[in-house]
Amino acid sequence: MARLRVLALTRRYEGRTVLDHVSFEVADEEILVILGPSGSGKTTLLRLIAGLEPPDEGHVLLDGQDITEVPPHRRRIGMMFQEYALFPHLNVFENVAFGLRMQQLPEPEIRARVRALLEQVGLPGYERRDVHTLSGGEKQRVALARSLAPRPAVLLLDEPLGSLDRALREQLMGEIRSLLKAERMTALYVTHDQAEAMAIADRVLILHQGRIEQIAAPEELYRDPATPFVARFLDVGTLLEGRILSGGDPAEVETPVGK
Ligand code: ADP
């Protein structure tokens, strides 16, 4: 059974439709990457699923239950965002333990879970470190541990590696996928970076101007692009090796949604 179902989700800002009847399913333990140019509606889609803003139309179902009206903190949906700062006044342990304390788990259980997670993200023994002494990559690892700690039913990740340099991103892509798989997590992962999408995804959803162009496994997207946009979008990235040659981002070539 699908863990998450999104039905005709629609969002308008000032009369402009930025998400247009988007429907898809995410299977239990699946990593679905949402790939699209900047302005295509990726972040808006995650915000609606998380409940941070209401849809104008449509529904979100978790394990068959309609959660469209359920407040964010009761949805069993975790989030990790690029700009999602760690609590600067709390050490690493307290940052990771935060969601567990909200669940009022017994202290020994919290300690064991935090220790195991820090080991899994490659930061064993970091419990007492101050957050401001960590590198960018270390901060993102702690943020990942924190979002996994309460075992959400679904984890939403919005450009989690966006602020890191390329070498570190490439290293962390593989690590994130392994970790999500080890935790048997169902995840939606937003990026505009094709290489990142293909490295992380079980399936990729290509979003363009608030609509789904295609949902398919990475190899199928290249073999059998469903629309001219998909063919063009994927080719541009591959041909230019965009990020490397220009230092720029082929996705930025695309103009934002305008209707
Ligand atoms: P992406 O994450 O793919 O870059 P977004 O979901 O952030 O795209 O944005 C989709 C479109 O919606 C963009 O054109 C953006 O300018 C617009 N948008 C997003 N949030 C708001 C808002 N709060 N008010 C008005 N327009 C918005």
From TrEMBL:
Keyword Lipoprotein among UniProt keywords: no
Gene Ontology molecular function, alphabetical: ABC-type ferric iron transporter activity; ABC-type quaternary ammonium compound transporting activity; ATP binding; ATP hydrolysis activity
Keywords assigned: ATP-binding, Cell membrane, Ion transport, Iron, Iron transport, Membrane, Nucleotide-binding, Transport
All copies of domain ABC transporter, residue ranges: 4-234
GO cellular component terms listed in the entry, alphabetical order: ATP-binding cassette (ABC) transporter complex
Enzyme class: translocase
EC number: 7.6.2.9
Domain of life from the UniProt record: Bacteria
UniProt entry tagged with the keyword Membrane: yes
Name of protein: ABC-type quaternary amine transporter
Species: Thermoflexus hugenholtzii JAD2
